[in-house]
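Protein Entry — a single chain follows
Next Lines — sequence and tokenised fold
***
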Amino acid sequence: MAVYTEVDDDELEAFLATYDIGELRSYKGIAEGVENSNFLLHTTAGTYLLTLYEKRVAPEDLPFFLGLMNHVASKGIACPVPIRDRKGEMLGTLAGRPAAIVSFLEGLSVRKPQPKHCAELGAGLARFHLAGADFPLRRANALTVSGWRPLFEASRARADEVSRGLAAELADELSALEASWPHDLPQGVIHADLFPDNVFFIGEHLSGVIDFYFACNDTLAYDLAICLNAWCFEHDGSFNITKARALTQAYNHVRPLDAAELAALPLLARGSAMRFLLTRLYDWLHHPPGALVKPKNPLEYLKRLRFHRSLSSPAAYGLD
């Protein structure tokens, strides 16, 4: 369960007294999220989510995250909406941690996405990019190409413990990505973490997106590349072009990709695979005994990186 900071009844009730969300009926810690402590609140006014932000989330980034949620929600994007306290603030302090309350989002994530889910995601991602176009705050992406080498160097000496030859392969790939990474593609606010567990559906229809805590300013098509990796590979490692076609064509229908974005998509997908491979590799090698969250296998993303490296055209993703 993702509760790292415990909250006692008295301090919770004192915190909630600063909001107009009714009286507390019950609350419980919930498993969603691996970065923060989350509690489901049931009050006389409805259901809400309380988040206590732990050490891996920088407090100075919270106005960006909460402001972005509020901004895109005002443009029609279904996502949790921050609740303001009686002073008009979206952020408070509880149990010594920065804390916020957001609206409860209906729906469920899907364990085995189908092409229809991927199409809904593609259209939803494009709408999110359009909605964020005039968001005034900015946040640099610490996990883009400029941040990959420090991550790699932190794991390089032990990388071959995971797979023989991994350090050399990653060194070569990283050099290639640094040399060819595009910096002149359309930019904007990206979600940067739209994995299936961060997207809710009611039936086959997208009901909302959650977990904005990696959102930042970066290349818009890179966000689409992240989704290709997260949604379009099967459990056996094979690439599902039917899902990819549904995802990319639905995105392209709402926000048409220009020629440079299309041409760069295989490279962006390689970069996306590298980003998640490196963070997983670091967590795998630096996993503290007794930690609550089990690290994910980095080699899944090595296979995906190799797949994208073999491509020369966006046609492999269902785009011509």
